[in-house]
Amino acid sequence: KNEVEQSPQNLTAQEGEFITINCSYSVGISALHWLQQHPGGGIVSLFMLSSGKKKHGRLIATINIQEKHSSLHITASHPRDSAVYICAVTLEYGNKLVFGAGTILRVKS
Amino acid sequence: EAQVTQNPRYLITVTGKKLTVTCSQNMNHEYMSWYRQDPGLGLRQIYYSMNVEVTDKGDVPEGYKVSRKEKRNFPLILESPSPNQTSLYFCASSWGGYNEQFFGPGTRLTVL
């Protein structure tokens, strides 16, 4: 079993829809990261969380430490949100990062 | 401009020919790391470094070497590349493993 599991693996949405991507982990962590990778390869950090909730524009990330679960929400989705969204955790001891497999999001206009 | 640079961006080489992929950051970050990304396997950490002269293995260190002689540079060395090291490689830097990661543009390596 992978230490970091994401769901769904693939997601197709219509423009304007509310989108949720989930991340569950089975290890102790010091931080959780949400990353975005557009076709063509570049990776951008969206959020780094250790507790609670963060918001940036139309993106919201939450984490529940007790349940070992995080969600990434996209409100009013747009075709430019089409990308791979990757969840990663920094392990509690040391500074090693472990990644989920990613969620491929396609937003249709 | 704050950035992480990698060179080369694309490389085709042959089995056994030693190569180095350079990584440099201008943000004075202490933490630097190398990842490989493969279809179906996602991103996996190869090595990371908390500071100059301090390096640690990630999940897939076999076949790779790194060095951190200066804070800004963290080269990845493949002493004897093999076809199973064909991959997309990313370097990243941050203040620590638990801080926001800044990624380089990636290096696509093909080993024939």
- Give the assembly state of these chains: heterodimer
Biggest interface, CB < 8 A = A-B, 24 and 26 residues
Structural class of chain A: mainly beta
Tally of strands of chain B: 11
Could you describe the 3D structure shown?
The complex is a heterodimer of chains A (109) and B (112). Chain A has no helices and 11 strands. By secondary structure, chain A is mainly beta. In chain A, the strands form 2 sheets. In chain A, strands 2, 4, 5, 9, 10 and 11 form a 6-stranded mixed sheet that branches. Chain B is mainly β and 112 residues long. Chain B is built from no helices and 11 strands. In chain B, strands 2, 4, 5, 6, 9, 10 and 11 form a 7-stranded mixed sheet that branches. Chain B has a 4-stranded antiparallel sheet with strand order 1-3-8-7, with no helix packed on it. The radius of gyration of chain B is 13 Å and the shape is globular. Chains A and B meet through strand 4, strand 5, strand 9 and strand 10 of A and strand 4, strand 5, strand 9 and strand 10 of B.
